[in-house]
Amino acid sequence: MLDAGVTLPTEFDDAVNWAAWLYYADEMTQSEIAKTLNVSRATVVNYLQEARSRGIVSIRISTYASGRTKIARALKEKFGLEGALVIPSTGNGDLVRRLGDAGARVLADQVTTGDVIGVAWGRTVLSVADQISLPEPLSNLTVVQVSGSSTGEPDFSPELCTSLLSSRIGARCVNLLAPAILSTKELRAMLLDEPVLKKQFDLIHSTNRILFGVGDVGPKSTVRASGIASQREIDTYVEHGAVAVIIGRFIDAHGRAVGGEHDERMVGIALEELIQTPNRICVAGGAGKIEAITATLEGGYATHFVTDMATGEALLGV
Amino acid sequence: MLDAGVTLPTEFDDAVNWAAWLYYADEMTQSEIAKTLNVSRATVVNYLQEARSRGIVSIRISTYASGRTKIARALKEKFGLEGALVIPSTGNGDLVRRLGDAGARVLADQVTTGDVIGVAWGRTVLSVADQISLPEPLSNLTVVQVSGSSTGEPDFSPELCTSLLSSRIGARCVNLLAPAILSTKELRAMLLDEPVLKKQFDLIHSTNRILFGVGDVGPKSTVRASGIASQREIDTYVEHGAVAVIIGRFIDAHGRAVGGEHDERMVGIALEELIQTPNRICVAGGAGKIEAITATLEGGYATHFVTDMATGEALLGV
DNA sequence: ACCCGCCACTGACACTTGTCAATACATAAA
DNA sequence: TTTATGTATTGACAAGTGTCAGTGGCGGGT
Question: Which residue among A81, A195, B69, B116 is buried most deeply as judged by most CB within 10 Å?
């Protein structure tokens, strides 16, 4: 077999790299690459897929450029955001998956060495965690669970969100070793006095970035499936004006905290603490969440906001 | 005209963005996107090309992953490099262009806010400058010309390399306001005493990153076309063992500086100063430069090295 | 030695994408 | 108003790409 002008790759990994360079940097066609590498074109296709899936090749869509679209600019203006990313609506595709992807890109864009990243929970946050990948490994990253662990729906529990995200980006993972909700506020106070938890809360207070979603309080909402509060307790919050939940805390239409007895039994970051975090990325969208998201943004809980176009327009159309 | 499930883009810029997201993030086909956006598929093709060329979409090939190929690892090992990037050889394509692209990717990967980037000159360096583009703008970048300006071949002069690179990455540009070579070393000393030049040399000494190529001393070499030295002066260097030129300075086969009277009349960063810079990116390749590159790497002048496979193998095969 | 399972690889087909000359549209000048 | 000029867009064709069932080779197990 003749060597067609290139020394043959001696390791499998190498071949994937050569293919990636020849295709994406040199813009050769797959057939040309196949000839150069002495393999079939189908194999080149496989190499390129491998390169993409392993992150050897990463396609980045500038969040900077996207932040300059009309809607994103309007959202930034209206709610005083530092950054907004509005993805196109498709009408069909699974919105949570798509928002997760977008949120992952925003987070991946911003993360740097040494970051301590707080992570809330919910379907959207889990979706972000599931899809994130860094183009190169970063050293000294920490992911911290910012609310207690819930006993309800395990598919998007705080622990899962935290551990999935941390493993995807190669970060140290710190799970909060306490239930999200306790039966009395005295017990909560005693628990928080434990040295282990004190240490964890110190870490929570040192997060420089936090990722969270927005929950509504409707009949099919995540918060009602989460187990952090009974249906009656949630109803009580709603009676007191609550329209949204962020990281387990209820807020009214203007973004003000809605407190109560139940609130004082919860373990997790408080809204006043959240707002101290320099970089607060909120990912949320969907027709049913307009009111909840408006409340969140009006409350100034987010510095960066990721949504889709339909939601963005609804938020502006009020 | 019916709105096909998506609100129509109201600005041109927006359309390009939506297309980019739908194609690269959602992996929709161009036909689907065309339907969604109510334009022809050909227009979508144009949008996507626009998105790529404007850097809204950037395809990144992990230099981290490429550094793990056999040859790159061997080069790092042999010459004690921090990083090596070896691109595949094609036999046909224009090597300078391809190395320039690779070097640009390495530099773009490493540059961060606040950097002061020293830039040498030469065909390869110019090629890097010509092809670099940052995925997002970075603030407070400075590009410094590290050697005096030459009167010879203007196609790859120090000024051009510096100003092109700085404009491509949106950096402040500092050109060295002095000729590369003066007629006496006394004049050189006087000139360097000028406050303007003192200030510029201060900046040169504070560069934290430097980009340079390697010149050979053969009959058709860049240095002989550059005008920084006469053919006779170059011959004299060669007689004293010079096999390579980096940033206007001659070195022997082991990377040691080859001095001389001419050397003392040059304006530009010295080799001892070069080696103080924390991050030194060297881009070079080609069959005729093996000896010169070996000398450069043995001298420890580079921390990061970019080359092609054929050159890499030749460097290892010694 | 044999069989089995695994996985990289292949060939041919159907689909997706890029190209390019021609067209529609806008804006500015006559 | 018409004409000119440049730019965004299109349709149809050529070229490039993804898929998938099937092949071939290699190591582990019996």
Answer: B69
